[in-house]
Amino acid sequence: MARKETAADAANPGRLKQIALTYKMTRRADKKIGLVLAAVGIVTFGVFLAIGFLIGHPIYLGILGFLLAFLATAIVFGRRAERAAFGQMEGQPGAAAAVLDNIGRGWTTTPAVAMNRNQDVVHRAVGKAGIVLVAEGNPNRVKNLLAAEKKRMNRIVADVPVHDLIVGTGEGQVELKKLRTTMLKLPRVLTGPQVTATNDRLRALGDLMSNMPLPKGPMPKGMKLPKGGPRGR
């Protein structure tokens, strides 16, 4: 029993430190976060307390209002922290892969299944919606990457729908903060066993990193990759 209490006590400072770090990170991008959270908490508590006085139960409604104010503040803080995090990640290489890694259960993601020398990249996610190819980089260049990868998917798993998305803020693109929501809204057309079978077939292909031949020992100075990029044998 004492050990459990000690572990819990040790975990609490860690959680508080994480919350504090998240708040500091959010405040860099959202200067009004403190005022917003204070306003949400005070208004929520004040409304319930006022209702309590009107109906003659200020203590009960005050306690309920305090709990709901804490909950509302936590929800608002979580959303604004998420928005701030996406804002800082926007335009950074690998940002889409980070979102895909946290998309949730039922999805299997493989980063960098296709890439060019300009570091435009295509990631792959497989779930009940089928195969989703997510590209990040220059919109004009990634279209060719997407087309080639989509053609490859249709040739290998022709019975599975293939969707393609380009992360960005331009017309026809998906904002980074909306990527997860957009993918979760795709219609589910595959069963669990079909998803597993699709993953097995794609896993047999490997990915860009596993297929890339790496030289033994350090790379000679001044050595450049071939213009066409590395290809697996």
From TrEMBL:
<feature type="transmembrane region" description="Helical">
    <location>
        <begin position="33"/>
        <end position="53"/>
    </location>
</feature>
<feature type="compositionally biased region" description="Low complexity">
    <location>
        <begin position="219"/>
        <end position="233"/>
    </location>
</feature>
<feature type="transmembrane region" description="Helical">
    <location>
        <begin position="59"/>
        <end position="78"/>
    </location>
</feature>
<keyword id="KW-1133">Transmembrane helix</keyword>
<protein>
    <submittedName>
        <fullName>DUF4191 domain-containing protein</fullName>
    </submittedName>
</protein>
<keyword id="KW-0472">Membrane</keyword>
<feature type="region of interest" description="Disordered">
    <location>
        <begin position="210"/>
        <end position="233"/>
    </location>
</feature>
<keyword id="KW-0812">Transmembrane</keyword>
<dbReference type="InterPro" id="IPR025445">
    <property type="entry name" value="DUF4191"/>
</dbReference>
<dbReference type="Pfam" id="PF13829">
    <property type="entry name" value="DUF4191"/>
</dbReference>
